[in-house]
């Protein structure tokens, strides 16, 4: 199959990336990072999460961050909400798009959200109903689609069932998350082939972590199946809590470098993206976890 001529990149660094940081990242730093990413041409910048500050302290300033962003008309700034309480806070802040999530195995669902898959479906259905009533767009995430840290192999039929439920209920798109980064290109292709029997591939997105260095290969593979939306994190922000010391989200710079090299349009300005990655990496006191960024920044330095 041929590759899509254009790929939309969903930037998740300010949320999925920074939520894993041990040290506090001030609201003003997050706001500047989000604005730099939007100015770089990223059409979607996930900006925070309305979750319990007890469990995810890095997201405690999400309402403050959202209200301070200099928002562009051509960019979406979704916020993650786990339940109706999170949605209530999002609506009060004026959020126009939210993301919600479910896990593809019972054990991960219990560990992550303290409920079963069936209960999580009831929960996100209630959120979708309320969000749609308020005119808010909803995106869905499914965790651990290619492997679970507790159960190992994942049932693709379960992933398909959850994706169908999300799309039929009203999510405009479902992002498939390889949360611990164990998937390979063959497995990723098989997943999309299974899902394509029940749901439109045009409404699916890829969210691959790079724990085992397979993320770019997996993205390349699923693009051949028709996937044209890819989640990534600037500077490779975000670790994997189940593989100590391993990297997490695939770096946006690496994805953009690959896509541009293939002649695929993204609308992203690599120079401005590098500036954003350098900015947050300097604040965190480390080098970007991106091979493309490292190479290009060294080249710029001469």
State the helical fraction.
Answer: 40-55%
Question: How large, in whole angstroms, is the Cα Rg?
Answer: 18 Å
Placed side by side, the strands forming the largest sheet appear as: 3-4-5-6-7-8
Mean pLDDT: 94
CATH fold category name: TIM Barrel
Model regions low in confidence, pLDDT < 50 over at least 5 residues? 242-246
Class by SSE composition = alpha/beta
Tally of strands = 9
Note the run of SSEs as H and E: EHHEEHEHEHHEHEHEHEHHH
Largest sheet, strands/sense/barrel: 6 strands, parallel
Question: What would you call the shape?
Answer: globular
Give the class-level CATH name.
Alpha Beta
**Total of domains:** 1
Terminal CA distance reads: 40 Å
Number of helices: 12
Give the name of the CATH architecture: Alpha-Beta Barrel
CATH superfamily: Aldolase class I
The proportion of residues in beta strands is 5-15%
Write up what this structure looks like:
With 302 residues, the chain is α/β, with parallel strands linked by helices. It has one domain (8-301): TIM Barrel. It is built from twelve helices and nine strands. It has helices at residues 13-17, 27-39, 62-68, 84-93, 106-113, 117-133, 156-169, 185-195, 215-223, 252-261, 270-284, 291-301, and strands at 8-11, 44-45, 48-49, 79-80, 97-103, 137-143, 173-178, 204-208, 229-232. Strands 3-4-5-6-7-8 form a six-stranded parallel β-sheet. Strands 2-1-9 form a three-stranded parallel β-sheet, with helices on one face. Helix 7 links the parallel strand 6 and strand 7 (173-178). Helix 2 (27-39) crosses helix 3 (62-68), helix 8 runs parallel beside helix 9 (215-223) and helix 10 runs antiparallel to helix 11. It is globular. The model is unreliable at 242-246 (pLDDT under 50).
């Amino acid at each position: 199959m041929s590759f899509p001529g254009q790929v939309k990149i969903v930037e998740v660094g300010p949320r999925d990336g920074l939520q894993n940081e041990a040290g506090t990242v001030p609201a003003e730093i997050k706001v500047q990072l989000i604005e730099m990413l939007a100015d770089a041409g990223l059409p979607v910048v996930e900006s925070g999460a309305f979750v319990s500050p007890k469990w995810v302290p890095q997201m405690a300033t999400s309402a403050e961050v959202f209200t301070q962003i200099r928002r562009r008309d051509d960019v979406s700034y979704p916020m993650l909400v786990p339940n109706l309480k999170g949605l209530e806070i999002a609506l009060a802040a004026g959020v126009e798009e939210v993301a919600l999530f479910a896990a593809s195995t019972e054990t991960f669902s219990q560990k992550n959200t303290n409920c079963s898959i069936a209960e999580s479906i009831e929960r996100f259905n209630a959120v979708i109903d309320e969000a749609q009533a308020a005119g808010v767009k909803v995106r869905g995430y499914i965790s651990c689609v290619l492997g679970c840290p507790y159960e190992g192999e994942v049932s693709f039929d379960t992933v398909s069932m959850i994706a169908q439920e999300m799309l039929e209920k009203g999510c405009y798109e479902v992002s498939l998350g390889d949360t611990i980064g164990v998937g390979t290109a063959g497995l990723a292709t098989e997943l999309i082939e299974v899902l394509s029997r029940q749901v439109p591939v045009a409404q699916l997105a890829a969210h691959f972590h790079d724990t085992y260095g397979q993320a770019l290969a997996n993205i390349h593979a699923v693009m051949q199946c028709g996937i044209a939306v890819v989640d990534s994190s600037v500077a490779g922000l975000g670790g994997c809590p189940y593989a100590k010391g391993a990297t997490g989200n695939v770096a946006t710079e690496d994805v953009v470098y690959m896509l541009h090299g293939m002649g695929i349009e993204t609308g992203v300005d690599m120079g401005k993206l590098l500036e954003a990655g350098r900015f947050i990496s300097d604040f965190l006191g480390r080098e970007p976890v991106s091979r493309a960024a490292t190479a290009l920044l060294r080249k710029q330095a001469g």
